Amino acid sequence: MMSPTTATARDAGGTLYVLDTHVLYEYLKGQYGFGVMAGASPDPNEALRQAIEVLLNTQRVVIPYVCLVEIIGQFFHTNIDLDNYDQWHRLRRVAFNPILNKLFDPSERIVLRTERPRIQSLNYAHLPISKELRDRLTEHYRNRKEKTLRPREPKVLDGMDAQILDDAVCVALENPAWQCELVSMDETLRLAVDDLRRSASNNPQLPKNLFFRRTYSLPGLARQWNWIRSQTP
Amino acid sequence: MTPQEVSVLFMDDEIHDTQATIVRDAVAALRQQGYDVTAVEKMSDAMDEFYRKFYKVFILDIDMSHVDDVLSQAGERGTRVAEDYRALDNGTAVIMFSAMGLVDDWVRVVNRHIFGYVHKGDERAIDRLVDLVATAAASDTRGLDLPTPRRSGQVLVCNAGASRFDEPALAQQVQAAGDFTPVFCTLGEMAERLTQDDFAAALLLADRFETRPAVLAKVDAVCAHQATPNVVIGCQGSDQARASILHLINARPFRLVNLLAGDAATALSEAVRDAAYWYGGNECFRAESRYVHRAAQNVDWQKLDEQFGASSEFDDDAREEEQP
């Protein structure tokens, strides 16, 4: 596939969005009303899905390859109906097609990043986390509303996150004239990006143009989301 | 895979017509081979079957006007059902079995990458159908072949007798498709050239392809190189050229362009661009939303929600808007 640089060289200087896996999932779920619960009005995630739709239809977007692998893996290799597998798999394929249709949009605004992973992604997950990040994590978990931790918590870059972060770093380095935003709902990934930004001031190998954007603060969404929250019991 | 393990869906509006011996005999021949054949006479029934059971092969007629059905009332033909099946699922081999197809039908279905086409009026039509089903049953279901879009490179071009296009005109259409350089060759050289060099797409044109076995074998050899690169074929669409066009359909080019239809020059450019864009990949089509929605109703979204954990994090971490 094309590199982000190829895809964005024509009119550099705007915002380049790098998506986390769940953004793809929410887009998929939102197609044609997938997953909208009967009687759930207003659906708090509907505004989110609309914002993702606008993002994918109007902005320059990079999808890390691992995100595609992750969503495909979750979609086709979990909760398998072994008794009726052929038909189960076929219907999954149909339901997944909107993602493929979007990925292969010939407009070239949406780029699937397929460059080989760097060893740096291992380092993100392997090296000791900084004192600042530990302090931020401690504060984050202290402020959480829930009393109990979820599985795998406290966590930072578990699963595919280290690779997604490194893809975002590479996209930012390859596109210095662009503001690169990693779009995610993962709060600990935000803390990791913040930590990386602090290090970037002293490390020329790290980008200064990489930012974190919470999915619910996508352009045009925050106001709508706040209104929906106020309407939801 | 034994024939008993291969499910075949057979759609024909004359399935219960005792006068339509070709249909009855075709179904009988397939069952005699051991295939698990389900026969339906309505287009809407064929669409319902899609959600009921997985069929490895779907055989269908084009003219479905003899049976009253919501889709035939809406003016739809079997061509439309074939397109919908191809858009919904890459796993079922779609084979047209019809005596009534028109040029427009042929072009539409081949450009949706059907597996094959058998004309009911052809000599040995049933034998051809049985052979085609056996080939489809033995073929692997293609996986998710991601394309490597090509926006530049060489396009191999062979003008085997397209009277409306000389070399400069073809070069212009190839260059209109992108940053492509046309490389011209003869039909005899074409397959060999595809093995020797890297091409983003291949373009083969003739007003009417001869039906001599030697000529058709060369066309088959060119198409066999797909999907690296994909092959675009242009010819004049006419009923008189049915035999050669049906052979082209069964060679399964990436695109078949009717050189007599509308703006053929632009259609050629678009076909070359699409062929290069889908280099190495199997083309995905946008399915009708009502059919996709019906499939999605079977997906357990709540379980997926738990795996992605999106909704709960969304609630927990909701804060004031932050701009980076």
Please tell me about this protein's structure.
The complex is a heterodimer of chains A (233) and B (324). Chain A contains ten helices and five strands, in the order H-E-H-H-E-H-H-E-H-H-H-E-H-E-H. By secondary structure, chain A is an alpha/beta fold. Chain A has a single domain, classed as Rossmann fold (3-Layer(aba) Sandwich). Chain A has a five-stranded parallel β-sheet, with helices on both faces. In chain B, 43% of the residues lie in helices and 16% in strands. The relative contact order of chain B is 0.11. In chain B, helix 9 links the parallel strand 8 and strand 9. The interface between A and B is large, with 60 and 51 residues.
Quickly list its features.
heterodimer; A: 233 residues; alpha/beta; Rossmann fold; 5-stranded parallel β-sheet; 10 helices; 51% helix; 11% strand; disordered N terminus; B: 324 residues; 2 domains; 14 helices; 10 strands; globular
The stretches of 5 or more residues of chain A where confidence is low (pLDDT under 50) are 1-10
CATH topology-level name of the largest domain in chain B: Rossmann fold
Structural class of chain B: alpha/beta
The name of the CATH topology of chain A is Rossmann fold
Extended strand count of chain B: 10
What is the CATH H-level superfamily of chain A? 5'-nuclease
Main sheet summary of chain B:
5 strands, parallel
What is the level 1 CATH name of the largest domain in chain B?
Alpha Beta
What structural class do helix, strand and pairing data of chain A support?
Answer: alpha/beta
Number of helices of chain B: 14
Please tell me the total number of domains of chain A.
1
Give the uncertain stretches of chain B in residue-range form.
310-324
Which percent bin holds the helix content of chain B? 40-55%
CATH superfamily of the largest domain in chain B: Response regulator
| Count of the domains of chain B | 2
Secondary-structure element series of chain B: EHEHEHHEHEHEHEHEHEHEHHHH
Tell me the fraction of residues in β-strands of chain B, as a range: 15-25%
